[in-house]
Amino acid sequence: MSQSSWIARAATVAASVICPFVLPAASALAGEPQPTEAYSPQDLSLGDQPLYLDENLPSLAPNAAPLNPSDRPLMDLINHTPLGRPMQETRINAYGWAQASYNYNFMNPAKSLNLGRVFDINDNRFQINQIDLAFERKVDLSTHQWDVGGRLEMLYGTDARFIHSNGMFDFSNRSNSGSSVAPGPEYQFDIPQLYADVGVPIGNGLRIRAGKFLFFKQIDPNASVFFSHSYTFGGALPFTLTGVTGYYEFCDTCSFEGGISRGWGQSLKDNNGAINGLGRVRYSMGKSTDLSLALVTGPELDHDNSHYRTVLDATLTHQLSDRLTVLADGVYGHQALPGDVTSASWYGVSGYGVYKFSDQISTALRLEWYRDEEGFTTGIAQNLYEATAGLTLTPFPNDAVGQFFRIRPEIRYDYASRNFFDGFRRHDQVTVAIDAVFNF
Questions:
Q1: What is the pLDDT of residues 292-313, one digit of tens each?
Q2: What is the C-alpha separation between 176 and 191, in angstroms, rounded?
Q3: Strand, helix or coil at 341?
Q4: For the chain, how many structural domains are there in total?
Q5: N or C: which end of the chain has fewer CB within 10 A?
Q6: Which domain holds residue 106?
Q7: Whether this model's pTM surpasses 0.70
């Protein structure tokens, strides 16, 4: 069957998560010695916990321009063409973003690799991380009528090679235990999301989603105030899944979404033929505090339907004032294992603070501790710590187009209880980075 035929099938069965757990940078260190006492299966990838889990939660980035698709430059341009009226009448929006970056590691790491990172693994490199384009029609549950919608999202850039699902643009026949960095060129193409939505007039409105979709975290750069990600981002939860979910709002302050999928990193191919379960509860405690609890559990190992992986993520956000917002995130993961090593666990906590000085400038700080008990997610049993400070700059906040452009410089310090950085030879590393994001 041709690749295009497989892509068409993805609308109904679509592909799932990508880089499960194995540390992308570590897998790229071919031939680099690794500690022998650590259990280091190749089906996980060390990553980072993004701040906000979907578009329904408020953005922690206070300088972000209005991200309503109908207000962005692309739709404004389309509205001046013959396509504008029919797209408005059918509530179809086209929008996206472009992101480019540069980062530098003061430690001059081996093979120019920043170990412990998700997308920014290359040192001293300018990259076009993402050029993303989406076509979307959201179902309207407020009408209490049947409605149909969906989303097609396409991504090109250096980030795409880290998020391929099994059998979809991954340039190989690898299963979930393969490297999270797909072979092939540095710049690649992916379809992160391809799903159909149906609005069902039951109670407050039920949304049924089927296809390939993001789990409850984002690869969208608008979801975070930092360019780099925390350690729990990749290891905590899958990036994408392929399956079916139901979403229901019990009231204005409480909602639930849950369903089943083919598993972490599975889409057009499946590493074990099993399904997993997933769910997320969101609750708003007043106007200034939001709580999110997300869970995914099921068999994820290759050719193994009996050893379950379970990950729980909890995020609490509180707006202390009009200018200051704080966020706490905690994650716990457990993988049952065959053989003498019966299980592996990883867990961590991170805290964020964001202060908005003006419409043009805000500053942010992130502190994190992450523990990998058996070295399952990082290749080494260790504790990891990181501190990141950064700015979000919106140079033209009042300009019709310029308001959608942001610059984010940052400085980051990482420390490991074992020799982990610089090709498993150092305890620490210091990096600086800057990225620019334009929403269109």
A1: 999 999 999 999 999 999 999 9
A2: 18
A3: coil
A4: 1
A5: N
A6: 3-439
A7: yes
